[in-house]
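yo

u said u wanted the structure for the complex thing, so here. seqs first:
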Amino acid sequence: MAKVLVAPSTLACPLVEMTDYLQVLKTANADWLHCDIMDGKFVPNKTFDDITLSLITKKTDLYIDVHLMVERPRLLLSRYIRAGAQGISIHYEAFKSRLELIDTLKIMRNLGLKVGLAIKPNTTINEVSTLLSLIDVLLIMSVEPGFGGQKFILGTLTKIMEAKRMREEKGLHYLIEVDGGINIDNARAVVGAGADVMVCGSALYKAENRIEYVAKLKG
Ligand code: DX5
Ligand code: ZN
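structre next:
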C-alpha cells in the first residue's frame, strides 16, 4: 500500500501551545501542517488570519497546507501565500459561478501554489469531475466543515474510492486528502479506500503519546 501522508490540523491546538506542538509534530515525522482558516461566514466558526499564520509558518519547516473556509477565497490568496502557504484548498461551494471558480484555480496555478479544491460532504465527485484536471489536491471533507472533534461520515469511504477511480480513468495525478473525524480506528479504512493525505485534528492533539499516534496513523 502506498505511503500515506499525515497532516495534523492547527484547529485542535490552542495558539499558546502551538510552538511546542510544532516541535512534537516535527519529531513525529508528520508531513504537512493543515492550517484551517475560517471566516465565521462560510462556516459558523472563526479562526486566525494570515498575520497569525505567518507567525506559525516561521516556526516550522512542515509543508504548509492551507484550508480556506471563507466566503471569498479569491481575494485572500496572495495574503496567505505571503504568510507561507505552499498549497491552498478553496471550497467548491464558496463559488456561485463555475467560471469564476475555474479562473481562480488557474490563478492559483500561476501563483505557484499546489492547487487544492475542497468539497463538503454533500457535494459529489461527479459535480467536480470536470475540474479535476486543474487541481493537485482534492480535499474531501468527511465532516461538515467548521469544527473539530466531529464523527467521521462513513459514506466518505465510497467518495474516496470514486475519486480514486476517476483519477485512474482520466489519467490524472491529484492527491486525495481527507479531512474530519480521522483517528487510528478508522485510518486503515480511509487509506484502504484511497486517501493519500489524512488530516488529523483532535484525535492526535488529545493523544497521550502524539509521536506514537502519528506512527500508528501511518500504519
Ligand atoms: C474542520 C476542519 C478540520 C478539523 C479536523 O472543518 O477542516 O481540518 O481540524 O479536526 P478533527 O480531526 O478533529 O475532525
Ligand atoms: Zn481542514
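The pocket of zinc ion (ligand 2) is lined by residues 9, 34, 36, 67, 179, 199 (CB under 6 Å). The chain has a mean pLDDT of 97.
cya
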